Amino acid sequence: MASSRGGLSVESSSSSSPSLLRAPSRTVTLGRIQPQAPTYRTVFCNDRDANLPVRFKGNSISTTKYNVFTFLPKGLFEQFRRIANIYFLGISCLSMTPISPVNPITNVAPLTMVLLVSLIKEAFEDW
Fold first, then answer.
1. DSSP sequence for 22-74
2. Residues 6+ apart with CB under 8 A from 68
3. pTM score, two decimals?
4. Of 20, 34, 83, 99, which has fewest CB within 10 angstroms of its CB?
5. Residue 31's pLDDT is what?
6. Contact between 10 and 17 (Cβ < 8 Å)
């Protein structure tokens, strides 16, 4: 029986023709896991138990800029890319000379506080 709707024809048959029969599968099923050929791999979506024996590589993505070992060097490098921090570091170094009329703590303390607050902010944002 054939019907036509909007230019589409749909055929339905009560008896199944030989061309519509599925050929028997030659894959061996071991529970829910099928053996895999070396040229391809099968990944079962949302099924950790089926993917566990195959041991696929993880696909986690890390967008952090720092880790425990590189936080201080990279963080200080990022802070001293700003020209103002380099300027105040130079002034602090000059204030440590014996010919300086001011106490070095008056220049080192503000620079240290600015760097400390900036590094804490960077650590919080990266975490």
1. PPPP----BTTB----TT-----TT-HHHHGGGTPPP------S--TTTHHHH
2. none
3. 0.49
4. 99
5. 55
6. no
The residue written with tokens 């061996």 in the block is 28
Comparison of pLDDT for 12 and 35, the residue scoring more: 35
Q: Please report the pLDDT score of residue 24 as a whole number.
A: 53
Residues in the chain: 127
Contacts of residues 66-75 at CB distance under 8 Å and 24 or more positions apart, as own/partner, are 66/122, 66/123, 66/126, 71/119, 71/123, 72/119, 75/119, 75/122, 75/123
Mutual orientation of helices 71-79 and 105-126 as an angle, nearest 10°? 120
Give the separation between CA 120 and CA 34, rounded to whole angstroms.
Answer: 51
How much is the pLDDT for 106?
87
